[in-house]
Amino acid sequence: MARQIWIDEEICISCGMCINNLPDVFRYNNAGKAECFDENGAPEEEIQRDAIDACPVSCIHWQE
Ligand code: SF4
Predict the structure, then answer these.
(1) For ligand 1, is residue 13 a contact (CB within 6 Å)?
(2) DSSP assignments along 9-47, one per residue
(3) Topology of 4-63 in CATH?
(4) What are the pLDDT digits (tens) for 17-36?
């Protein structure tokens, strides 16, 4: 089972990087911030590389 993703909305600057890189995993919520709607939308390695490591403000985290 995929690990859960947690995004700190207070820090997200809505740059769209994670959403553009992984549109099957991330989307904008009603507040215009990123949210994860499907942790199974991409392999964990891609989520790590293209979202967690790519986020300019490092606000995407694995939730153990
Ligand atoms: S990459 Fe980070 S700052 Fe940009 S939209 Fe995604 S969570 Fe927000």
Answers:
(1) yes
(2) TTT-----HHHHH-TTTEEE-TTS-EEES-GGGS-HHHH
(3) Alpha-Beta Plaits (3.30.70)
(4) 999 999 999 999 999 999 99
